[in-house]
From TrEMBL:
Reactions catalysed: alpha-D-ribose 1,5-bisphosphate + ATP = 5-phospho-alpha-D-ribose 1-diphosphate + ADP
Record-stated family: Belongs to the ribose 1,5-bisphosphokinase family.
Function of the protein: Catalyzes the phosphorylation of ribose 1,5-bisphosphate to 5-phospho-D-ribosyl alpha-1-diphosphate (PRPP).
Pathway per the UniProt entry: Metabolic intermediate biosynthesis; 5-phospho-alpha-D-ribose 1-diphosphate biosynthesis; 5-phospho-alpha-D-ribose 1-diphosphate from D-ribose 5-phosphate (route II): step 3/3
Enzyme Commission designation: 2.7.4.23
Organism field: Pseudomonas frederiksbergensis
Domain of life from the UniProt record: Bacteria
Record lineage: Bacteria, Pseudomonadati, Pseudomonadota, Gammaproteobacteria, Pseudomonadales
Name of protein: Ribose 1,5-bisphosphate phosphokinase PhnN
Enzyme class: transferase
Keywords, comma-separated and alphabetical: ATP-binding, Kinase, Nucleotide-binding, Transferase
PANTHER family: GUANYLATE KINASE-RELATED, RIBOSE 1,5-BISPHOSPHATE PHOSPHOKINASE PHNN
């Protein structure tokens, strides 16, 4: 049986990387691979288990078909390695840190993907971005402005079918909610692979 693609999205600073890190062992227990993204961000400032490349290297990888999905946001290019197709057809589940802006293209490519939106209250989001301290004040404002575009009434109406997890409280609460959601969706280690 094919594995399921889990598409975790949410504003920059909402805690996607923190959630993925905290749930990593449990995800492995579900035979779920956490994808290492390719990002045009310097390796020192990546802050997640990603591969940092230059814009030229990214463009070349894209031309060579190295990405199953890729998008541009926040002045950066993000790529999801093409290997995920093999993992999914081998029956492994795959979790990616995705983009809200790229969801419809991702759904076209992977119609059965499980879309999960990590939310956080706006004042907490600002504090988290400031505390993380990776971006300049200007870059933080740009991220908050981008987030506002996804928080309009029209955008909310488009969110039907998207599972929402709140991470305004303790991270452990969001981890428990994520694992409960995966269980409800029938995501478990594939018996055919054991
Ligand atoms: N539930 C939480 N409570 C408090 N701080 C959090 C929580 N989740 C994440 N953080 C902090 O918020 C900042 C942004 O989290 P991060 O995982 O980098 O977000 P993202 O990957 O979505 O950009 C980090 O400094 C992280 O430690
Ligand atoms: O379309 P959006 O939902 O706004 O997403 C745009 C990008 O921002 C997020 O990355 P990340 O949280 O790593 O942002 P960062 O690059 O600011 O860390 C997300 O994973 C996307 O790659």
């Amino acid at each position: 049986m094919r594995g399921r693609l889990i598409y975790l999205m949410g504003p920059s600073g909402s805690g996607k990387d923190s959630l993925i890190d905290a749930a990593r062992d449990s995800l492995l227990g579900l035979d779920c691979v956490v994808v290492r993204r390719v990002i045009t961000r310097s390796a020192e400032s990546v802050g997640e288990d990603a591969m940092g490349v230059t814009t030229e290297q990214f463009a070349q990888m894209r031309r060579e078909g190295d990405f199953a999905l890729c998008w541009r946001a926040n002045g950066l290019d993000y790529g999801i390695p093409a290997e995920i197709d093999r993992w999914l057809s081998d029956g492994r589940h795959v979790l990616i840190n995705g983009s809200r802006g790229h969801l419809s293209e991702a759904m076209t490519r992977f119609p059965t993907l499980l879309p999960i939106l990590l939310t956080v209250k706006t004042d907490a989001l600002r504090k988290r971005l400031e505390r993380r301290g990776r971006e300049s004040a200007e870059e933080i404002e740009a991220r908050l402005e981008r987030n506002a575009l996804f928080s309009t009434d029209a955008a909310r109406e488009d969110s039907e079918g998207i599972f929402q997890l709140d991470n305004s409280g303790e991270l452990s609460t969001a981890v428990d909610s994520l694992l409960a959601l995966l269980t409800r969706e029938g995501i478990s280690a594939n018996a055919d692979r054991i």
